[in-house]
Design brief:
- The protein is mainly α.
- It has one domain.
- The protein contains 6 helices and no strands.
- Helix 2 packs antiparallel against helix 4 and helix 3 packs antiparallel against helix 4.
- It comes from Cohnella candidum.
Length: 137
């Protein structure tokens, strides 16, 4: 079965090979005000981006078997990979700015538990909503 999700798979694959270069040699340090403004939110955001996506992958695998939509599964795998890259880039920025990474936060734990109670479609919708909000990062 061919679906429109092949376009998303191609989009993520294209992103992978056409990344904007980040100048990691830039010596800019956040001001105290900037740091105080972003530290808690960037820590939580980086933690959320760092998910392995096991639940989504398993749910998508089951959906693929049921619907035979391999493009949906492949697009989701690429989406998760892109999110993990975002997490690595944010972690690198945070280390450069002496912002500690966090491994656990109650908001992240609640979010993950609630996602497991939802269907695959609702879980993806929640993640996409978070992506829209996260565009500022």
């Amino acid at each position: 079965m061919e679906s429109s999700f092949y376009k998303w798979k191609d989009y993520f694959l294209e992103n992978k090979v056409n990344l904007k270069l980040i100048n990691w040699n830039d010596n800019y340090k956040l001001t105290d005000t900037e740091r105080k403004t972003i530290v808690k939110s960037i820590q939580q955001f980086q933690l959320g981006e760092n998910s392995e996506g096991k639940y989504l992958i398993n749910s998508a695998r089951k959906s693929r078997l049921r619907t035979h939509d391999h493009n949906y599964y492949d697009a989701l795998i690429e989406f998760i990979g892109e999110e993990q890259r975002h997490a690595r880039d944010l972690a690198r920025f945070m280390r450069k700015q002496d912002i500690p990474l966090i491994r656990v936060h109650w908001i992240d734990q609640v979010f993950r538990r609630l996602r497991r109670l939802a269907s695959l479609e609702i879980s993806v919708l929640v993640l996409l909503t978070a992506e829209i909000i996260a565009k500022v990062y």
